[in-house]
Amino acid sequence: MERQKILIVTKTYPSISTKYKETVCTAGILLDEAEKPVQWIRIYPIRFRGLTIDKRYKRWSIISAEIERNPKDFRLESYRINDDSIMIIREIDTRNNWQERKSLVLPLQFSSVSEIQAQGKSLGIIKPQTITKWFCKPTEREWNPQQQAVQAQGDLFEPSLELEKIPYQFGYQFTESNGKSHKYSISDWEISELYRKCRDSSNGRTLAEKEKDATIKVKQKLEQLAKTDLYFIVGNLQSHPQTFMTIGLFYPPIQTANQLSLF
Known about the structure:
Blueprint: E1 2-11, E2 15-17, E3 21-31, E4 37-46, E5 61-69, E6 78-81, E7 87-91, H1 95-105, H2 113-118, E8 123-126, E9 130-138, H3 145-152, E10 168-175, E11 181-185, H4 189-200, H5 207-225, E12 231-236, E13 244-250, H6 257-260
Parallel strand pairs: 4-6
Antiparallel strand pairs: 1-3, 1-5, 2-3, 3-4, 5-6, 5-7, 8-12, 9-10, 10-11, 12-13
């Protein structure tokens, strides 16, 4: 493995794995020594909630870690990481209309999902031309029996961490600059956590009322984000390479003419 610098751009909500028990997929940008963007990378698998506190990187952190290409994943951006090697260098803030974040992310922008595929890639950032609507649809409320069995397994060396199944999928339907329309669900951990927090803080008397309140607030958040300079970080599935989803949202504020004239 080789030590590299990586900008953490997004993390997906954890999933249950029969091999790793619980995993998170992290999308980031490989940086050179001068912290200039080189390429998108996918770090998987990583048992994020099992990391020690000092290694639990946040979004928009630059970390240093030992990584290597994952030989079991044909996708060129997929890397494995040595959990013990993770060092958090610094966090990038939103000063000057997210200028530093944009300088690292947008040079690696694709015009469309089709361009990502045409280049043999499986991960990238795109800008929707038009957002048609947001959606929320019910999904399974419980993990499947195999996943429940994995969660029930004890571990002599690690405390068991219960993982809640989110019973809804959220996402956007949108059109790209090439005219193609897509309907992608969002697997971003932040959106799932927003739903959980809104539900748990709801004044609803029943679970159904609390969930309704939460879905309304997530909808309001997605509508607000659609009014920003919104980009989608998209990636495909290893088992279904033609299937993409939104794994993260990048939403700097829209700059006004007066702000642009300052630069």
